[in-house]
Amino acid sequence: MPCLVEEAIEPKREEARPGSNLLAAAASRLTSIRGHHLIRILSPWPSKPASHPEKLRPTAYLDGLRGFAAFLVYWHHHELWAHVPLQTTLIESSFGYGGLHFFITLPGIRNLFHGGHFAVAAFFVISGYVLSAKPISLIHAGEQAKLADNLSSALFRRWLRLFIPILSTTFIYMTIVHALDLRPDNFNIYSTYWEAVWGWYVEVKNFSFIFHSGDVPWLSYNFHLWSIPVEFKGSIVIYTSLIALSRCSRNARLWCQTGLIFYFLYIVDGWYCAFFMAGMMLNDLDQLSAKDELPSFLTQFRPYKKPIFYTMFAIAMYLGGSPAHNAQIEEMRRNPGWYWLSFLKPQAVYDPKWFFLFWAAVFLVASTPHILWLKRFFETRFCQYLGRVSFALYLVHGPVLWTVGDRLYAAVGWPKDSRTENIPDWVNIFSLPKTGPMGLEISFLVPHLILLPLTFYIAEVVTRSLDEPSVKFPQWLYKTTTARPARLPA
């Protein structure tokens, strides 16, 4: 392909000013680049040919697990949004709750319909694992200077990487809602656009400050994003722990990690910190295992690896379905199969589901690479695609649900007072029967013929236009602002 200068070299016309052809060619080229970039962003097709698949990384299964978990969040939120309050209570409860038995509440099966909480727990453990991977390898190698550089870069980039997509997508959502007067539930409606912009600014500035002491952790423009400040707090826990433990011996480091997990889970209500620390410890153990440097206490279990990890996976599938109707321990004890388990909850933990989801998520992440069929499933092209768009899918599925989804559910006959009040023209215009198992009714599944591809398309566009740049921009900014050592005189 000819370069820009080669394309600009043309016979010189007498009436043309010097350099005009070069400027015209450059302008034409720049316009072409912008056009191609816009087409790439808006195209529904992958940007890379399917005939040239990328080689999977050793931890590609974690990308697939994170992506599949993001899809479970999508499905869980739709289940709760479409159904009536009694049904949502049953979906969030165990099999047999209130003497009622539904297929989607069976142990294991329920994770596919009620797995949003389990998915978020897995997000946190995976984040702890991934964020600590490079630093732990440097700690093992004794590279203290490189460790300092790595953590400096990671901490500099983390807030920007997490919050640039949030600020962008919520601003766009706020603008669209105001411009089209959509009036979704739980959304502040302002008389003018500038009032709407100011209301958005006041909310997001407090939401993005993780030390904010306000009582409401939700962002009204997208309340599903409550987990992002938690993600940033967990990242800080990882980075500070890595620095603190960087000069410890192997055994001391592992004992300190264990002690921190116990402290966060049993002494104080720092459940999310325990998730991140557990992910960090799993990564440490995996890297030690790869070098055959595990403590002797653990190596004696190697002959029993297969039954141990299958048992951990089975426990994860059961505990991942922890009842989540509310945070009251008395309510959990009304759920069949959870009465005796409820007494395991530590006094420090306020919401019991996070205690059980801690063990579920840790066991799932720990066992996945050792169960071949499970690892291969998360390495499939579909799960890898979900992993690539997972953050964008998490960001956009709520706004699509509250605008397009709400109208489609109203159209097929799902009742809700706010739909009758805000979108009466959509109610029952194409009523469908509610036949089928709860959570799999015809009138629930049909709207997803539109909602699923629409949500994936928007997630793809957001990935290309906002998520990927939010990774590259902090990297560029860090390199630009980093002081370089002065050169010695010749």
Distance between the termini: 41 Å
Poorly predicted regions are 3-20
Q: Look at the structure and give the mean pLDDT.
A: 88
Radius of gyration: 26 Å
Helix content: 55-70%
Instruction: Give the helix/strand class.
Output: mainly alpha
In what range is the share of β-strand residues?
under 5%
Number of strands: 0
Protein traits:
globular, mainly alpha, single chain, 20 helices, 64% helix, 0% strand, 490 residues
What does it look like?
InterPro entries: Acyl_transf_3_dom (IPR002656), Acyltransferase_3 (IPR050879). This is Acyltransferase 3 domain-containing protein. One of its GO terms (molecular function) is acyltransferase activity, transferring groups other than amino-acyl groups. Pfam families: Acyl_transf_3 (PF01757). The chain is built from 20 helices and no strands. It is mainly α and about 500 residues long. Helix 3 (about 60-80) packs across helix 15 (about 370-380), helix 12 (about 305-320) packs antiparallel against helix 14 and helix 17 (about 390-410) runs antiparallel to helix 20. The longest helix has about 35 residues, at about 145-180. The radius of gyration is 26 Å and the shape is globular. The two termini are about 40 Å apart.
